[in-house]
């Protein structure tokens, strides 16, 4: 089998770390693993050295927007992860949030606006309307992407223009969300048995107060508590919500829901990731370790399921 990692997105280095860790974990349970980059040589490799299955450990860009998955589907290569069509639905954050809201799942109020709107209608007027509608503080993030690249909390109106410019460096559309104070939690979902199941919720305590790119990938910058330090009823609701979001978006094999539990104990979904990180500071491996599940054994079961589908 083969692990795909790297690619050309902003998250290339994180993906390479995920791929290396996953490959080592799979070798640790006796699997023969090749590590391949997602580059111009990939299709020829898949044709001439066809693996039994592929695990997509790509983050951002083509690895999560369905592009690589579509190529694997075209070539008939079984792979661990979500189908191309469902990847596209989850990748676009405003689309996914609209689906959550329609299904009655809580998600912070938001607006998504392309760069052209600010240019054509006047940035100041649009920003003022945004603050009037959503209030402050605001969470700004690219409408597509991961690892919190370009995401930031804005507490003062005067800081909005610079924050918008920073965010637009990663995407053409900005998603502005009402910032929700509370406990930030991640819940991974895996389909390694007869039914999809949710792993123990992981509470994220970033020392800088915001779980940004630096906090995610700098050892010691964030403290993780697993299971999260919340009531049993809230923990159960988190797991039920993650499963509901996974099914609603049509995801497969593995996903991770990022959410905030507000002061009233409500679970507010921030986004769902179709290719969770697998680095030493990532959340899915933390949750798996807490329940005593070996990462290699977990993904070996997912590989077996992909092969059976193929």
UniProtKB/TrEMBL annotation:
Location(s), subcellular: Cytoplasm
Top-level class of the enzyme under EC nomenclature: ligase
ATP-grasp domain ranges (all copies): 97-304
Domain of life: Bacteria
Keywords: ATP-binding, Cell shape, Cell wall biogenesis/degradation, Cytoplasm, Ligase, Nucleotide-binding, Peptidoglycan synthesis
Keyword Protein transport (UniProt): no
GO-annotated molecular function: D-alanine-D-alanine ligase activity
UniProt-listed Pfam families: Dala_Dala_lig_C
UniProt keyword Cytoplasm, yes or no: yes
Main location: cytoplasm
PANTHER family noted in UniProt: D-ALANINE--D-ALANINE LIGASE, D-ALANINE--D-ALANINE LIGASE B
Protein's name in the database: D-alanine--D-alanine ligase
Organism: Pseudonocardia charpentierae
Lineage: Bacteria, Bacillati, Actinomycetota, Actinomycetes, Pseudonocardiales
